[in-house]
């Protein structure tokens, strides 16, 4: 049984929760929203936030699902299959159902407030129904999604996790089958060839997405099959990685050249997506290049962030503990707070960077203060994590 505490991976998981705040704040200030996600943005916008948004989006959720699969395998090892299902039902499914009733309506209201304020120049907390209907029709024509289609917004992550837990028996079967080729698998994972193989696999799952960018389909209650295949593959790989976990230390040594490769692949991925979006009609060759570049770029960034976390943060630290334990609450709460701050700032003509920093700072403050004083010692922490905590602020000794 694996008794090792993965402090580096815990730190990575917590750090990426903070990236969720940055990602969704950047979304408010895009100068050129993706064609599959034609959302209105603040009049104060800048292309730097497009780059920031695309960078974080290119690896954040894939890396999350890799970590989710990895830690699910660890949980199965400790509690068995049915114990894991029971635990995940209590810690993921139950919070999802409660959040759909408590958090989702507030998030939807404030998100609509922001978009109507941008689109019509109004600033009402309770949306004007005529404006809401007109905007809904505009979005239907742009995206093809009928107005009023139930959306989970940021809670889609928990929804997909619940679906992916049903793949645990498949993951167990794959691990058992791989044992016949264990030496070869370990050699592959410990070599750059593994990065290429995973990149090619992900390129295949990106084929249904225009521009090889996953921006549509996954936020709705009706499961989106291409998104399930794309994100589910990362969960399966992460689950299998736990059995071959020794190779993760190799990633820590690869950090410098992974960073150099990412510096080439990420700008190239944006460029090839731009070419495909601009093409009329879309060209098969352009799409092939786009999915190949994006597949390799995504896995390069996943390897990079895992390697960096293991290289720099794989030790016991009050910061790691705090981010790890608070991350679930931060994830659940951050989206309505981001929308609230963005909506309130729409009325002011301020530099884009100032608005962005205000949204990020305000959201982080609300999320962590509410966790520190209102969650960690209460029944909410028991509901989310199974226990209460009494953590000091990480900068206090």
Characteristics:
single chain, 397 residues, globular
Based on Cα principal axes, name the global outline: globular
Please provide the count of β strands.
0
- Low-pLDDT runs of 5+ residues are none
Structural class from helices and strands?
mainly alpha
Helix content: over 70%
Q: Could you state the order of secondary-structure elements as H and E?
A: HHHHHHHHHHHHHH
Mean pLDDT: 92
C-alpha-based Rg, rounded: 21 Å
Q: For the terminal residues, how far apart are their CA atoms?
A: 33 Å
Tell me the β content. Answer: under 5%
Largest sheet: none
Oligomer: single chain
Question: How many helices does DSSP assign?
Answer: 14
What's the arrangement of secondary structure elements?
Elements lengths: L6 H21 L19 H56 L1 H17 L8 H15 L12 H10 L2 H11 L3 H8 L2 H14 L19 H19 L4 H31 L5 H29 L5 H28 L6 H23 L4 H7 L12
Helix pairs in contact: 1-2, 1-11, 1-12, 1-13, 2-5, 2-9, 2-11, 3-12, 6-9, 8-11, 10-11, 12-13
Detailed description of the structure:
With 397 residues, the protein is an all-alpha fold. It is 73% helix and 0% strand. It contains 14 helices and no strands. It has helices spanning 7-27, 47-102, 104-120, 129-143, 156-165, 168-178, 182-189, 192-205, 225-243, 248-278, 284-312, 318-345, 352-374, 379-385.
How would you summarize what this structure contains?
By secondary structure, the chain is mainly alpha-helical. It has helices at 7-27, 47-102, 104-120, 129-143, 156-165, 168-178, 182-189, 192-205, 225-243, 248-278, 284-312, 318-345, 352-374, 379-385.
């Amino acid at each position: 049984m694996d008794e090792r505490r993965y402090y580096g991976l815990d730190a990575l998981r917590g750090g990426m929760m903070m990236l969720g705040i940055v990602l969704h704040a950047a979304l408010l200030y895009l100068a050129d929203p993706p064609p599959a996600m034609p959302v209105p943005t603040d009049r104060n916008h800048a292309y730097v936030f497009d780059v920031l948004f695309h960078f974080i989006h290119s690896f954040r959720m894939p890396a999350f699902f890799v970590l989710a699969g990895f830690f699910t395998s660890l949980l199965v090892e400790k509690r068995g299959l049915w114990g894991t299902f029971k635990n995940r039902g209590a810690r993921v499914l139950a919070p999802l159902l409660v959040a759909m009733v408590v958090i989702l309506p507030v998030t939807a209201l404030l998100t609509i407030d922001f978009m109507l304020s941008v689109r019509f120049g109004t600033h009402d907390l309770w949306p004007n129904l005529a404006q809401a209907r007109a905007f809904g029709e505009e979005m239907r024509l742009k995206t093809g999604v009928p107005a009023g289609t139930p959306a989970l917004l940021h809670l889609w992550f928990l929804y997909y996790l619940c679906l992916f837990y049903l793949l645990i028996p498949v993951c167990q079967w794959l691990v058992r089958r791989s044992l016949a080729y264990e030496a070869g698998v370990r050699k592959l994972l410990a070599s750059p060839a593994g990065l290429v193989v995973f990149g090619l696999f992900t390129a295949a799952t990106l084929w249904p997405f225009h521009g090889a960018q996953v921006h549509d389909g996954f936020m709705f209650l009706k499961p989106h099959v291409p998104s399930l295949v794309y994100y589910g593959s990362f969960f399966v790989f992460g689950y299998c990685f736990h059995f071959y976990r020794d190779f993760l230390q190799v990633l820590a040594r690869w950090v410098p050249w992974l960073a150099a490769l990412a510096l080439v692949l990420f700008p190239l991925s944006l460029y090839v997506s731009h070419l495909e979006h601009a093409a009329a009609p879309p060209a098969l060759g352009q799409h092939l290049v786009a999915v190949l570049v994006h597949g390799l770029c995504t896995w390069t960034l996943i390897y990079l962030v895992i390697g960096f976390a293991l290289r720099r943060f794989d030790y016991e630290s009050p910061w790691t503990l705090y981010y790890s334990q608070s991350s679930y609450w931060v994830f659940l709460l951050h989206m309505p707070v981001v929308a609230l701050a963005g909506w309130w700032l729409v009325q002011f003509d301020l530099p884009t960077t100032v608005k962005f920093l205000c949204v990020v700072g305000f959201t982080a403050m609300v999320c962590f203060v509410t966790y520190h004083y209102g969650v960690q010692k209460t029944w909410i922490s028991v509901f989310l994590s199974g226990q209460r905590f009494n953590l000091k602020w990480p900068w206090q000794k």
